[in-house]
Amino acid sequence: xxxxLRGRLFAKQPTRIIVDVNGVxxxxxxxxxxxxxxxxxxxDIALRIHTxxxxxxxxxxxxxxVLEQELFExxxxxxxxxxxxxxxxxxxxxxxxxxxxxxxxDVARLTAIPGVxxxxxxxxxxxxxxxxxRTPLSEAAADGVxxxxxxxxxxxxxxxxLGYHRPLAEKxxxxxxxxxxxxxxxxxxxxxxxxxxx
Length: 198
Hints:
single chain; five-stranded mixed beta barrel
């Protein structure tokens, strides 16, 4: 089973990329949350991989963070949710927001994800509630505190994947988190990219 790929980004389109590892191109399906942080063709890339084996195919699903991969693997463990739907879920809602929606039993928010109906949303809440990954988000939520660490780590990982040196990336991310304290991943990443361009 392939569990990790490190190489160069050969080509990309939303939800599908090709990673060149020593001359071999791996076709990897990715959620939009990963797609937005991976840089342009030619950039170095490292992804966590879930290998899905079917009778007629060997499919690779790639993720930038542990949380994305854990959520994906828990989603496909739910009856009636296959890899395509799980990918659509992660593309339609940020991972930390998915965790929040499931914890709150927010069926309306989950049903707003394209391709997810009411029954699927109810099943997700029912089956995921006690099986969510423990994240800084869950622990912070238990204390009634907001959770920037998760966004910070995701944005930092995105900048490093884009080729920025870690010390520069860390400074930019810290400045971006201060500038957008309640910012989403996309907003914080855009702000961080402005910071590194200064």
